[in-house]
Amino acid sequence: MLSCGFLGRREELSALPGLLERSRLVTITGAPGIGKTRLALELAGGLAPAFPDGTRLVELAAAGDPALVPRAVASALSVREVGGVPLSDVLVAHLRDRRLLLVLDNCEHLLGACAELVQTLMGRCAKLGVVATSREALGVPGERVWPLAPLSVPGTAELTPERLEDFDAVRLFIARARAAQPGFSLNAYVAPAVAEITRRLDGIPLAIELAAARIEMLTPAEIARRLEDRFGLLRDDGPGVLPRHQTLRAALEWSHDLLSAGERAVLRRVSVFVGAFDL
After folding, report:
1. Mean pLDDT across the stretch 15-43?
2. How far apart, in whole angstroms, are the C-alpha atoms of residue 58 and residue 41?
């Protein structure tokens, strides 16, 4: 999927550096497609001056075995294994005197292994910072968790195109639509449909980007109508797109597959509620 730049998240980018400075470990959690990875990378870029030894991204989505977590970190650091020495000790020796930021991306399916390694590294490397992204917290002592909310969306009141652009979800739709169709503009004719699309997609960035990419073939009003079959509509099979980001269904299935049988039963029962629910 083509990048449309980083939009919004001003509150997060203002607050997260302070959290990381105090705890050295921040985990950004949230629903599938909410933008955890993009926020982590934007945060890491802004923190470059504070970490003179650099930032390393460790992508864990493709790692299916917990034993691969230390190897993924070693690969990102260009650290070689040493015969007879535990890899975690090799990593500690490499990181002990470095002021470096590790970004561990997509930890949710390897929580135990990620938590164990992070606890080891942070306990023995006093200058190390870690930003993790995950569907749930790592559970490491001292961890600060930042639940990432959806992008802001307009309500049901009719607004002018200029007012609609105050909402991050609308701004993302416009940017992605222009990437697909450079002549796209938010005018009074299409504005109500764009507002409806972002609202019905709950401000989820991945879903909004997939919907906006359809502007090559459909008008905003046609996209809004077809959201009744959102799983069929919201897909991107282009090269370079991660499998779990190619369709909205795949993104949700990635999370569903991580649930236990009991958690799936609870999900089925609470899904009958249209909006939020209390205990």
Report:
1. 95
2. 11
Choice between 129 and 274, residue whose per-residue pLDDT is larger: 129
Q: Which residues contact 137 (CB under 8 A, 6 or more apart)?
A: 27, 29, 143, 145
Count of C-beta atoms within a 10 Å radius of residue 212: 26
Provide DSSP, 156-211: SS---HHHHTTSHHHHHHHHHHHHH-TT----TTTHHHHHHHHHHTTT-HHHHHHH
Q: What are the CA-CA distances from residue 144 to residues 10, 100, 141, 202 (Å)? A: 18, 18, 9, 26
C-alpha 182/C-alpha 205 separation (Å) is 20
Q: What is the mean pLDDT of the segment spanning 178-199?
A: 94
What single letter denotes the amino acid at residue 181? Q
The gap between the terminal CA atoms of the chain, to the nearest Å, is 39
Please calculate the CA angle 259-206-229 and round it to the nearest 5 degrees.
80
Cβ atoms 12, 41 nearer than 8 A: no
Place of tokens 């993104």: 251
Contact between 9 and 46 (Cβ < 8 Å): no
b (16+ CB within 10 A) / e for 70-108: bebbbebbebeeeeeeebbebbbebbeeeebbbbbbbbb
Who's near 73: CB < 8 A, 6+ residues apart?
Answer: 56, 58, 79, 91, 102, 104, 117
Whole-model pTM: value is: 0.86
Amino acid at the residue 192 = P
- Between CA 108 and CA 94 the distance in angstroms is 26
Which tens digit of pLDDT belongs to each residue from 99-109? 999 999 999 99
Given a cut of 50, whether residue 55 has pLDDT beyond it is: yes
Structure tokens that stand for 89 in this block: 């000790």
CA–CA distance, 45 with 87 (Å, rounded to integer):
28
